[in-house]
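Practice problem: predict the structure.
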Amino acid sequence: MSAASRPATLGQLKAAAARGEYRSRSVKDEVRHNLIAKLRARETLFPGIIGYDDTVVPQIVNAILARHNFILLGLRGQAKTRILRALTSLLDAEVPVVHGSEINDDPLAPLSAYARQLVASSGDDMPIDWLPRDARYVEKLATPDVTIADMIGDIDPIKAAHGGLQLASELAMHFGLLPRANRGLFAINELPDLAGKIQVGLFNILQEGDVQIKGFPVRLPLDVMILFTANPEDYTARGKIITPLKDRIGAEIRTHYMGSREQAMAITSQEAWLDRDGAIEIPQFVREIVEEVAIQARSDRKVDKRSGVSQRMPISVMESLASNAERRALTHHETPAVARVIDLYAAMPSMTGKFELEYEGELKGADHVARELIRGAVSTVFDSHFPDADMRSVIDWFDLGGTLDLGDSVSAAEVVAQARTVQGLVELSQRAGIDPQATEPMLAAGIDFVLEGLYSQKKIARSADRGFHSTEPVRKREATVTRTPVLTPDDDDDGGPQRGKKKRYYN
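Answer:
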């Protein structure tokens, strides 16, 4: 219905309903109807949500078709809140509400005392407002200090005093978040953190669809679809969730981290802010390593698996290493700015706060764990790019005493110049997908990848004072030593019984 033709009064809305141009329906029926239309048109249901097409999305579709309230169970950084917010796309573009209503009363079926009185006094001339879909989504983060008044409502003495009302009057009620979400979606994040008595207050909403405020005889059969999120570790009988509340939630849908590195890379590319004023290029192998760090962190025994490692970690790390590359490019007037593997170490502040450690990890420290994760990720990606490459010439160069001091602040020109002194090093960088005619910054990134890969696999070493160098202080060489045989006391020159069995000891 266009803005020009939509009804402005209750009478006009009734006429539109009589002509079939408007139909009042519950929010669950509305979401179901619009979902069916999208499925028939083969439209993307959740744009920007990657990796859930065959797992999470079908379960959400089933829950909506069944008109269920549902909960998303998953570790942090699994797009739970983003999915809930995306459900607003299944609401109508706008719906009519009683003018001035706090709980978005339907003009054709008002609930609150305020709306009923307005309809009775104004009749068909009562003005109506149109509420857009984005305003019909209400979200609350569950915390222990949330009260019943916050969620459902309470008596407002000030409102009663100003209006000359009795405290028992419905007009003296202050409505909480849940009634204000009437005819819309109400989402509660981290449900187990909600106090037990507040969870009890949700029972009637989920089962009978009504609320009662402060024990007064006020019954509001709300029209609302309730959605939840929670960590699976907390959402158990031993956790902080009340079992009768679990019983009233229609569906429990499990989210997950991405099943492949490629899907994770697609999410990071979509979310990371890399569109800077100057050109910044991130080589493919650097993108792979960033994701591999998160993948390895999720399976590392020193990292707490119960809290998970959010997808926000690779996003933040990608932005930080891009900033380090940008800083280097600005310092040396390089164009474009190209990220290197070594920039990951400069991005560690964006990494260490994104995971929680077990006892063993706490003993080693977050920085140490982060360095181990980077080294393991580099080794894994390095193997995929150089499965059978002959690195002997490069390793030998270091074993013969060569060193390369190539920190994250060294210019691309200096990196390439030093690398050309090492036989085969520049050529090896091309195996990582670097064009032989690439710019110096890109060529430097490939060279850095080779060196970091060899270091990650302990084929060369690196230290703060010497840079890259051999794993051995001095190469062991075969030495020619003059050894003088010394005869034992059993040896004799006249052919005794020990002849041919002599033991010789050497000086």
